[in-house]
Predict the structure.
Amino acid sequence: MRQDPTRPHRVGTGGKENGLKVWDLQRPGEPLFRAKNVRNDWLDLRVPIWERDLQFLPGSDKVVTCTGHGQVRLYDPATPQRRPVLDTTFGEGPLTALALPPGDTSVVVGSARGDVAVIDLRKGRVLRALKGFAGGVRGLQCHPHLPLVASCGLDRFLRVHGLEDGGLRHKVYLKSRLTCLLLNTHLDWEDEEEPPPQTEVKDEEGDELWDTLEPVPAPRGGKKRKSSGL
């Protein structure tokens, strides 16, 4: 379940064999939108439903989801069509988390096999892949202003990647299996505080005390040990 950030009274739900539904908490009797399953595959078999995560696109009624079968789907409740307006696949493992970067034209998805990529929501193609993961991804969140995405998962690492080049910026080991994360939006990550300059403090009284002490003569060497002849 996810809440619409611009309209808090709207939430989206989904799950295993439970398609996407958009609800109005002020009128919870019936969902505002009920997604319809995609058409049968090329063998005329029903495609299973397994919604794993979803997000509302700000400034519109569109909802993007990722499934346990590797699909990324974009729904538009403002149109009469209840099936996804975009349906693409990524990787070979179940998709477990997604996040929306600034701009609302792409989505970051992560899988249970440690695959993370940025996917274009206009054409459905992979823009770039993020490297360095060694376990299933459980949490993703993009910075609201900077081109950064934070991720965590079962390999016990917190990572921060750049979205423009896909490079790894930070990596922290946190000891436990991680399932979610939250960014502090009030912190400006670009302005790093410089440490205050270190000033040398002299102990004048201690220096005077050491100057008044008489030097102690070095001890004489001990007796030399005679070597025994063979």
Summary: The longest strand covers residues 18-24. Residues 204-212 form the longest helix (9 residues).
